[in-house]
Structure formats: C-alpha cells, structure tokens
Target: TetR family transcriptional regulator
Amino acid sequence: MESQRQAEAGKTVQRQRWKQDPEGVRANILEVALKEFADRGLSGARMDEIAAKTRTSKRMIYYYFGDKDGLYRKVLEQTYRKVRTGEKELMLDHLAPKEALRRLTEFTFDHHSRNPDFIRIVMIENIHHGEYLKHSDLIRGLNQEAISRIEAIYDKGLEQGVFRRGCSPLAIHWLISALSFFNVSNRVTFSLLFGDALHNHAGQLDLRSQVADAVLRFVADE
Amino acid sequence: MESQRQAEAGKTVQRQRWKQDPEGVRANILEVALKEFADRGLSGARMDEIAAKTRTSKRMIYYYFGDKDGLYRKVLEQTYRKVRTGEKELMLDHLAPKEALRRLTEFTFDHHSRNPDFIRIVMIENIHHGEYLKHSDLIRGLNQEAISRIEAIYDKGLEQGVFRRGCSPLAIHWLISALSFFNVSNRVTFSLLFGDALHNHAGQLDLRSQVADAVLRFVADE
DNA sequence: ACGCATTTGTACTAAACAGTTAAAACAAAC
DNA sequence: GTTTGTTTTAACTGTTTAGTACAAATGCGT
Model:
C-alpha cells in the first residue's frame, strides 16, 4: 500500500523537465546578487541568501561565477554597463547650449534617482578602495563619452557667448555627478538629520530644478 | 636545574603594575575601531583585528561596549560629535555675506577632506539605511546649527541686495555638503574612471575654489 | 548515439567569527 | 579594610559562512 502510494505520487509528480538556459540563469543570479550586494554590502551579503532568492541553486552560482568575489566583480561590471548604456538615449545636438545642459543635468538627476542600486554599488566600491574596479578594463572606455557629450555642449555655448571661459568639461561633469549622486547616496542620513523637505516628492522636483540652476549658473556668462 | 631557571625567570619578569584609566582605554578602543570600521565597513571589520590593534584586549572591548553593534554605535556618535564640534571655530559675523559664504564653503570642503574617516562612516551608515543613526537622539541637535549659520549669512546677503530671493538655507547647506562630501566619498572611483586631474594637489586647490564659485553663483543676485 | 555543457540536490567541511568563561590581581575611594 | 570597578590572560564555545563533494540526470548540437 505504501509502495502503491509512492508509485502514484511518482506518476502525478511531473518529471521535472528543465530547459537549458545558461544566459537566463546567469542573468537571474546577477539580478538577485545585485540587489543583495546593494542592500547589504559586499561582506554583508550572504551567498546562501542570494542562492535562496534565485530560481536556481548555490551550486550554480559557483558553477558560473567561481566564488563570491567573482560574482561581485560581474555584478559591478554589469551594473556600470547597464547604467552607462541607459544614458545614451539623449539627443541634445539640436538644442541651444543652455537648454541642452539643463536637460542633461535633469536627466542625470533622474537617472541616478531611478537607479539607487547602481549608486549603492559605487558607494560600496569606494568603501573597498576601488580594488575591484581597478582590475576591470571593460569599464573605463564607457565613461569618456560622458565628458565628450559635455564638451560638445560647452564649446557650442562658448561660441555663442552664453557660457564663460575657464570651465573644464571634466569639472562640469564632476559637478553634475556630485549633485545627482549625493542626492541618492546620502538621502537617508540627510533626511534623518534635517528632515525630508528635500526628499519628499515635491522636494525632489524642486531640488532637481535647483540643481540644474546651480549647474547653469556655474557656467553662465557674466 | 630547570626549576631554578623558571624561578629566576619568575624573579626577572617585573610584576606588571598597571594604572586604572577607563577613559583612556575607551578612547583608545574607539580610535582603533573608527579606523577599522572606516577602512573595512561594519560587516567587514573584525573584532579580533580591532582588539589586536588596541593597547588592551578583546575582553575589555566587550566589557565596555557589550557587542560589535554597541561598539559601532559609539563610534558613530563620537565621530559625528567630533566633526560637528570641529566646525564651530569659524567666525564669520564680521564678514560681508559673499565673503562669509565663500569662507564657509571652502572651510567645509577642507574640513571634509581632512576627515575621510568621518565621510566613510557616513557612507557606511547610509549603506545600512541609517538604522544606527535612527536610534541615536544625541546627534540630531548638533546639526541645526549648520543651517542657522547659513541662514544668518543668507539673510544679511538679502538685505544688502547681493543675494537673490528664493533660495532656502537648507538647500544651500545641501549644496555645500554635496560637493564637499562627494569630493571625498567618490574620489577613488572618479579618479579611476576619469584620471586624477581633480584630485591631485593642484587639482584640489582649484576644485575648492570652483566649488566656492558654484555656491556663490547659485545664490548671487542677477 | 555520442559527448559536452547544463542542471538538480543535499550533505558536508573547514575556517572564520562573535562572543564567553574563569580565576585572579590590582586600583581607588570611602 | 572593605567594596566596587578595572585589568590581565588565554583558552574555549557555538554559530555562521564560503565553498566543496558527490552522484545523477537531462538538454542539445553534431
């Protein structure tokens, strides 16, 4: 009777037929790992926890990524890549320099705001003295583009006499990054110390516009 | 013969006479722990490592601070307190508003630059969603002062017609903090991606002045 | 039908780690 | 001189953690 039960059970339980989907599995692991690392930090994240949240197993993580560091490295690379490629949609060539710079700034502000996981990974990487980013060649190329984009706008603004001389595109990029980054990275502590006036919904809309003001005023002529 | 050796050794070893210095011991532990947490993060720091670097023992850490979280909490509080009190030296009342704001900005920029451990602790606290700062009442009071200081300068600037209306002291503080903070917090990754033009010695002097420019231009009239 | 890559699942190991135990000895204040 | 808080050791415990062993089965290109 017992064996019959098992036999029936064996029948009803569909033999788990699985597809081969290495890319899907890798992507799923990376997605879960990104969230977990971003949420708890590199040392804080637990491999068992990551494994449990994937649709696959711990065994597969080690199969594809070797060890925890290898996994983190891939998460880091993928995160940078995804965010940077997401920045390319912007068409600013046809706009007047001031308008182009405002759009770029507000776009960056929103973009960082929409990607807190990226911000947190960069924070974590800075905490770890950039030792993983150091050993990743893949990433460096992607970022010069950001500078070129600004340089194009700035040069045009100089020609038209609406921007002052003496600013460097790098410094302008730094300024935009700093404000957009800090807005996300320090949201928690800043809100705790000074209230959420800048970080509730209305506050963010206003702050974005003020950030764009700050950038424009920084490069403005006169 | 062997026992005689031991007896002689027993004589030569000076009975370790020690002083009671609870405050000194606590301070020493906190100092070491700050460096270790700032360097490796909360989960990354090791109690054994901290203990080894103190002039006392692991036992004493637990004697005074209970557990790792308790130690971190005290480090967090002390770090905020030390940095905030270090900001009070500034005498700006007698200066013209523009000059006062420039001095304040450049001071903050330098001050953060001189206290990378503080910056890193704040980063770590943000990574941990501020859960330790949340439960610390001690800290909140210290920070309103920063806003008042700016408000005084801003109001004076309005009276004299050198600042435009419509800026909030909170937003100005946010702006100064963002630029001064980001300069330290993201130094590593920014340098890796874009070179160290802004972060070598000459670059930092220039950047400080540009940051002050940005703040002044943000509030400037016309 | 062959071979290689992929997938499943569980139990395991070895190290790392936070926190404890125990018994003493000493300091300092009263 | 009694009491209370401080300091010294070094071994120890129990848990958490990254990473592995093992064994088998299926997918899929050729």
